[in-house]
Amino acid sequence: MMIFFIFVVIAMRSPAHAIYSSTLSLSLQGHEFQPRYGVQLIFNETTKSRLLCSAACSQNPSCRIFDYDSSSHRCRLFEADLTNGAIIATASQTSIVGSTILSASLYASMYNQSCSACRENRYQTCSSNTNTCQCPGNSYWNGSMCPLQLFENAACSQIDACRSDFNLSCIINSYGEFTQCSR
């Protein structure tokens, strides 16, 4: 099955007056997102339009994917991406999936810089411990960007790649190599 994408840029002003900007890809209608884990659903409400649903995702640093059904006005935001979920066909021809397009350029110039560098940015947050721009919760720095932390049994390549909120660690084998996320 081939899914075509339309690219949309969303720039919104949050209630705190910070500007959040995202570039999104949209699936064809008739699709929804299926997360691998229930904990990845961070918002499930009715919203008046697809634009408002995408704006809600853009304003939430944890949101990487949303789906919206224009018949039911259901808007769901997910802390997930296509590595831990899938875009699937659905019976509703009025449902569409939007996913945030991420690139290293969104991260590299700000990571570990003074908090003033990421003040109006959804991709990095200010750490009160170090007063520097860091990856938001449930993500980690891989040297070029902030991918989502991994779940149990996922292959990992560094110590902080696994979901610490689930007490997961990247296990090191007898050869000193990182292997997989485990308790």
TrEMBL record:
Gene3D superfamilies: Hepatocyte Growth Factor. InterPro entries: Pan_app. Residues 28-101 form the Apple domain. The keyword Transferase does not apply. SUPFAM superfamilies: Hairpin loop containing domain-like (SSF57414). Residues 1-18 form the signal peptide. Keywords: Signal. It holds the Pfam family PAN_1. Transmembrane segments: none annotated. The keyword Signal applies. This is Apple domain-containing protein. The lineage of its organism: Eukaryota, Metazoa, Spiralia, Gnathifera, Rotifera.
